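Structure in, sequence out. Go:
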């Protein structure tokens, strides 16, 4: 499935969102514009603003406010990327050097702060207190998810339950906020607003599960990041947790030691252990379950090309290879 199939139905709106993003990157400080433009121009899938547009238009909301909300969500996401790369000491994202690798940690953090503040400045223009409540709550949950993940670095005793709590906060929450805020902006009936909120949550979890799975299946060229990054940082993701739980004693010990020490010295043996233990199969199956559930959540929505695109997006989330 080509991702263009679900972008195509909102092509014009996407162009408006891009234009808004460029307009709002303006700053009196040249370095702010330079770093902001660098990370925004890297592209990426832009799934979160896409979700805003598809969810809103599935409920017959199609105006400038919907595009503004999509830009708000993208600014929020971009600010978290700048901060995450500093925290994770990442040097590669979307196939090129991270902002912190080019300009250092301090400018990256501060420009991330600028984008975060600008997103709320833009959000005020929507004049919707319910939307502000959703996004303000989401930003708190995202921060909590990142901090929780930080506390579990090199903790080989991390459970699947804690892992799910981490990814629901750090990833799924912004997916959920994207679809939920669009529904609220469209004045959707409670049943439809809740359906889209749940859809975003389930889709976000499926997406992160596949991300963590690809860390042991993909390669740097296709993923646009270094494979094994999570292992190098000592992050206990689900494939590693399942390997320790279901693999042989030798496989479990290998993974446990790698998490506790960090680094990628034994990455290939660990990749093999993750595969042989059935951890990748387990992770893929769970991702499929969440994607299927996301699709089921869309039942209250009227039939339209936008609902179809949301269904296709959920299917793509678990079929992608990068």
């Amino acid at each position: 499935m080509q991702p263009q199939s679900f972008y195509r139905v909102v092509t014009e709106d996407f162009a408006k969102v891009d234009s808004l993003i460029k307009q709002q990157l303006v700053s009196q400080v040249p370095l702010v514009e330079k770093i902001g433009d660098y990370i925004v121009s890297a592209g990426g899938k832009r799934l979160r603003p896409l979700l805003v547009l598809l969810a809103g238009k599935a409920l017959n909301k199609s105006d400038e406010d919907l595009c503004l909300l999509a830009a708000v969500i993208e600014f929020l996401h971009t600010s978290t990327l700048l901060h995450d790369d500093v925290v994770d000491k990442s040097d590669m994202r979307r196939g090129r050097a991270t902002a912190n690798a080019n300009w250092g940690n301090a400018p990256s953090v501060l420009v991330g702060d600028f984008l975060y503040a600008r997103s709320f400045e833009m959000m005020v223009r929507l004049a919707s207190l319910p939307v502000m409540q959703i996004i303000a709550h989401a930003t708190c949950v995202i921060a909590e998810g990142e901090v929780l993940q930080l506390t579990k670095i090199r903790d080989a005793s991390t459970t699947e339950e804690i892992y799910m709590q981490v990814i629901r906060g750090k990833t799924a929450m912004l997916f959920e906020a994207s679809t939920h805020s669009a529904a609220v902006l469209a004045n959707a009936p409670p049943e439809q607003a809740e359906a889209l909120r749940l859809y975003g949550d389930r889709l976000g979890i499926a997406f992160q599960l596949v991300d963590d799975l690809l860390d042991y299946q993909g390669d740097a060229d296709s993923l646009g990041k270094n494979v094994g990054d999570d292992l190098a940082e000592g992050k206990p993701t689900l494939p590693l947790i399942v390997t320790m739980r279901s693999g042989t004693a030798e496989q479990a010990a290998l993974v446990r030691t790698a998490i506790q020490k960090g680094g990628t010295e034994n990455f290939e043996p660990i990749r093999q252990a993750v595969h042989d233990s059935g951890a990748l199969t387990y992770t893929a199956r769970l991702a499929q379950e969440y994607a299927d559930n996301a699709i089921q959540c869309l039942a209250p929505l009227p039939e339209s090309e936008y609902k179809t695109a949301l269904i296709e997006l959920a299917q793509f989330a678990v079929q992608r290879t990068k």
